[in-house]
Amino acid sequence: MKKVYSLQRYHVHPVQFLGILFISLVLLCAGMTGTAHAQEEALKNLKETGKAFASVARGASPSVVFIKVEKTVEAGPSMRSPFNDEFFRRFFGQPMPGQPQEMPQQKRMIQGQGSGFIISPDGYILTNNHVVGEADKVLVKLLDGREFEAKTIGTDPPTDVAVIKIEAKNLPVLPLGDSDRLEVGEWVLALGNPFGLSHTLTAGIVSALGRSSVGISDYEDYIQTDAAINPGNSGGPLIDLEGKVVGINTAIYSRSGGYMGIGFAIPINMAQNIYNQLIEHGSVTRGYLGITIQDLTPELARSFGLADATGVLIAQVMPDTPAEKAGLKQGDVIVKFNGEPVEGFAPFRNKVALTQPGTKVEITVIRDGKEKTFAVTIEKLPAEEQAAASPPDTLDKLGLTVTTLTKELADQYGYTDEKGVVVTQVDPDSAAARAGFKPGVLITEANRKAIANIKDFKQAVEENGDKPLLLFIKDSRGARYVALDVKE
């Protein structure tokens, strides 16, 4: 039975009911109006954000350049003359005079591409070392279609920064920002030429700051961003919403070779320091203290009687170095550099390296539970230390990224009096991973030949061809030979 409710039952007069109904309708309409207003405001804000991106793109694009590089390489192992083959020697003796011992080496030209940006009206351009470092010819194309052949002014492999120059006047310039003022969550824009698609703009945020131990270069302090970066973006600018450069797009984390949401950029403050030195001297001079340091773990902090794990621990002080002369000792915990807190191994190492030799700095340490401050005069990083600081290199055929063994890495992994290359990354889908290779493995020989650096190792891999590569390695499990298949 259907129930019928009387208005009187609830003690509401019909006029009162109509009033309540009217008020309800007014409130409902107001709510709808409020929702519509909120939507309009949100849409307006989105449009304003889009206009801001468009404004930055218009201002920055003329200063961003498309870089094409050319390099002539050997096509493969030199072709031996059949007259020099062991079979012919056995049956026909030594080659007659005038017969070639080797066939002429075949050569081929390879091409690459990347990005860069103009930072002076007379044609100086910032880019990555891995874009132009080994090129025989560098071509630069501007947004207006003009093309120039560029001269490489200087490169710095340890930071992956390079400076090139084109002969032109009154060029549009990108202003440089202050990467030290960046905060996680800020909008940033990446400009470049991914996959050869000239002057592509992508947007994202600063995902993290101070990324180190990534295994890309020797001196790392990367800005991490989720702005899409792909092959060809390398060397292009990372820009804030004021249109100022805050970083140089350098690398991505990817298992596919393409964008996966994680990109890395060199902070412009670091790059500008390198740029100034390359312009003035054509090379980079780094500061030197003469100590081996390590991050202070919570366990180490407790062992040294410290309340927290802030700072870096001095593991060794080299004789006759700035640190020893100033009175620093093994076991000191460095907590301040020129009055600024020391946050960890990589930031501290970068600060020392970017300090000009001859500069006097104050280093505050905790020794036996007490703070002490020492005046230290930074010296020039010795040539042999600088030469050892080569950036990691990826060998796709092996699925390995390696770097030359430095004293710091030797101390970190316990490889005393050794030479070779240290594995920094392993492709999880590679034969190297299946063979048990992990970061920290030391390779000292390839095909029974001693390996001293990346150059030696790459040469051994190239000469090996597609045969299994015999490696002698060392790690926490000891020393052993490993035959490693290469990727097809």
Overview of this protein structure:
- The structure is a single chain.
- The chain is α+β, with helices and mostly antiparallel strands.
- The protein has helices at 14-60, 86-92, 129-132, 268-281, 298-303, 322-326, 345-353, 383-388, 407-413, 431-434, 454-464, and strands spanning 64-74, 107-118, 124-128, 137-141, 147-156, 161-165, 187-192, 200-211, 222-225, 237-239, 245-252, 263-267, 287-288, 291-295, 312-317, 333-337, 340-341, 360-367, 370-377, 379-380, 393-395, 400-404, 421-426, 442-446, 449-450, 469-475, 478-484.
- The chain folds into four domains: 14-61; 62-77 and 106-284, Thrombin, subunit H; 287-384, PDZ domain (Pdz3 Domain), CATH 2.30.42; 392-484, PDZ domain (Pdz3 Domain, Roll), CATH 2.30.42.
- 25% of the residues lie in helices and 33% in strands.
- The strands form five sheets. Strands 21, 22, 23, 24, 25, 26 and 27 form a seven-stranded antiparallel sheet that branches. A six-stranded antiparallel beta barrel has the order 1-2-3-6-5-4. A six-stranded antiparallel β-barrel has the order 7-8-9-12-11-10.
- A hairpin with a 5-residue loop joins strand 10 and strand 11.
